[in-house]
């Protein structure tokens, strides 16, 4: 029976990680670089041209006979411009381009470079891992106050040392499509693992171990948008999923489930 369960979990992890991911188009930096070079070029001030000589009138006219003087091309050329506003708009465009060209670093990037400690725990037969640096506290599961109008994966609020922890039904959140009525009835949550400094906590059945992981032991997700941003990667030799805690917290704060639509 255990062999069948292990096989099912391995197939589930493979399905999670081999999902089609959205390919992002390569960004062409040449037009942006050209704009930046143009924007950063020094502005050369050209001296105003001398006004053309205006011939003297042949005969003086009385004020009543004087016709209205129309502006000449020279006068229009000498009209004041608005270089200040153009400079401000240009600087703003440069700032926007620079901001767009420097995306924030992936919070999981440090774990892809160096060894890190991870906590392993189980939920409905599935082993999950989370970096210790991303953990808050571990508590025994206590009394829960249920709230109406919350998603099915929201178990309730647990008060611990004056703090309120929003407890997540981890099995229902991570793999709702695999959670049959029989399997759900067999789940016995014992602990709550809080995430970083947030108010969220994951309910789990057993705390397996805490052990160091090397980056090469993890099959990391591909960069770019994907339907399961909470899945940082898979540790195949331990047959477990590694959680991306910052992404997980973002999804929970937005009341979202384990998958999201990507453009």
UniProtKB/TrEMBL annotation:
Gene3D superfamilies documented for this protein:
CheA-289, Domain 4, SH3 Domains
Organism lineage: Bacteria, Pseudomonadati, Pseudomonadota, Gammaproteobacteria, Alteromonadales
Know the name of this protein? Chemotaxis protein CheW
Q: Which GO terms describe its biological process?
A: chemotaxis; signal transduction
**Which segments cross the bilayer?**
none
Which domain of life does the UniProt lineage start with? Bacteria
Sequence segments annotated as region (Disordered): 39-107
What are the Low complexity biased-composition ranges?
59-71
Annotated CheW-like domain residues: 115-254
Q: Which PROSITE patterns match?
A: CHEW (PS50851)
Q: Which organism is it from?
A: Idiomarina tyrosinivorans
């Amino acid at each position: 029976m255990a062999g069948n369960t292990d096989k099912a979990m391995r197939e589930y992890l493979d399905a999670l990680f081999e999902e089609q991911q959205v390919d992002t188009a390569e960004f062409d930096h040449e037009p942006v670089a050209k704009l930046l070079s143009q924007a950063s070029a020094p502005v050369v001030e050209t001296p105003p041209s001398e006004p053309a000589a205006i011939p003297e009138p042949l005969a003086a006219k009385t004020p009543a006979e004087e016709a209205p003087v129309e502006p000449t091309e020279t006068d229009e050329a000498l009209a004041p411009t608005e270089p200040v506003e153009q400079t401000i708009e240009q600087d703003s465009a440069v700032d926007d381009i620079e901001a767009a060209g420097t995306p924030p670093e992936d919070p999981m990037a440090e774990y892809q470079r160096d060894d890190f400690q991870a906590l392993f725990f189980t939920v409905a037969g599935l082993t999950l891992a989370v970096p210790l640096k991303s953990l808050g506290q571990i508590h025994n599961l206590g009394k829960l106050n249920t709230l109406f109008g919350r998603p099915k994966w929201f178990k309730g609020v647990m008060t611990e040392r004056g703090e309120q922890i929003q407890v997540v039904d981890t099995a229902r959140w991570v793999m709702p499509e695999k959670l049959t009525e029989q399997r759900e009835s067999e789940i016995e949550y014992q602990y709550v693992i809080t995430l970083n400094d947030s108010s969220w906590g994951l309910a789990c059945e057993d705390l397996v171990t805490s052990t160091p992981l090397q980056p090469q032991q993890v099959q990391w997700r591909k960069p770019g948008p994907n339907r399961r941003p909470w899945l940082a990667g898979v540790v195949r030799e331990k047959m477990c999923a590694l959680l991306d805690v910052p992404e997980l917290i973002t999804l929970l704060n937005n009341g979202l489930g384990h998958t999201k639509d990507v453009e």
